[in-house]
Write a structure and sequence with these properties.
Layout lengths: L1 H13 L18 E9 L2 E13 L2 E10 L3 E12 L2 E13 L2 E10 L4 E6 L2 E6 L9 H10 L8 E4 L4 E4 L1 E11 L2 E10 L6 E8 L5 E9 L2 E11 L4
Antiparallel strand pairs: 1-2, 1-15, 2-3, 3-4, 4-5, 5-6, 6-7, 7-8, 9-10, 11-12, 12-13, 13-14, 14-15
Length: 236
């Protein structure tokens, strides 16, 4: 269960979303930031998480890290380029630890050979390239940039260990969310799941460049989520 928690939180940390704005100023172009979160599991505070976006030239690095006491931890790292409003995926890596058990996933994106190569622990795979393919983490940033332009696409193609699959996000109104960092007017967005009993919701704050200030995920009788505690970066 903890492994599923951290994978989904990586996606949610990774897949924030939604408000259809056009004509935004350059102040809202993709920019480095750091955000801290409280992590809860079935309504209980269990640990903390951070998102950090940094750059060197046109090489960007996005890191999501989470800890649940001494029980589990996970780190995800996405490397990519950014040109004309589009992210070009380069690599992705996830390390997770649950008690004494370690799991690793790596993905390398190769546009020249039109392949995506992955390795989950000892299992290696290679599958066909898809235009504008993203990973679970940088998809969040692409969606945020799209919302400042022409709006969300009908689908976003995201790679995992076994395949590239389309995912859809749906806007469901606005809501005020109170966090330790402040109260924000947010856009509520739902990520659609193919399996019954699962629901992932994001609350995105336009004031913080559409940063997710709250995320929840329900998987039948289990729930977990993130709530913002601190932020350093672009704001409106």
């Amino acid at each position: 269960m903890a492994k599923t928690v951290f994978k989904t939180l990586g996606i949610t940390a990774g897949l924030s979303t939604v408000l259809l704005f056009t004509g935004m100023s350059q102040a809202f172009a993709i920019a480095p930031f750091q955000a801290s979160y409280q992590f809860n599991y079935n309504g209980k505070n269990l640990g903390s998480a951070t998102r950090t976006l940094s750059k060197s030239g046109n090489n960007w690095t996005y890191v999501f890290a989470a800890k649940a006491g001494g029980i589990a931890s996970a780190t995800e790292t996405s490397r990519f380029s950014f040109n004309n409003g589009k992210i070009g995926s380069s690599s992705f890596k996830r390390n997770s630890k649950i008690l004494v058990h370690n799991n690793t996933l790596t993905m390398n994106f190769n546009p020249s050979s039109k392949t995506v190569q992955t390795q989950k622990d000892e299992e290696k795979r290679s599958f066909a390239w898809k235009a504008d393919v993203l990973d679970e983490l940088n998809a969040e940033l692409q969606i945020r940039e799209d919302l400042k332009g022409s709006g969300l696409k009908s689908n976003y193609y995201i790679a995992d260990a076994k395949e590239i699959e389309p995912r859809k996000f749906v806007k469901q109104g606005t809501e005020n969310i109170t966090t330790k960092y402040g109260t924000f007017n947010t856009v509520k967005v739902v990520m659609k799941h193919s399996k019954a009993g699962r629901e992932t919701i994001f609350w995105l704050a336009p004031k913080l460049d559409y940063l997710p200030v709250k995320v929840t995920h329900v998987d039948k009788k289990t729930s977990y989520g993130l709530l913002l505690t601190d932020y350093k970066g672009a704001s409106n």
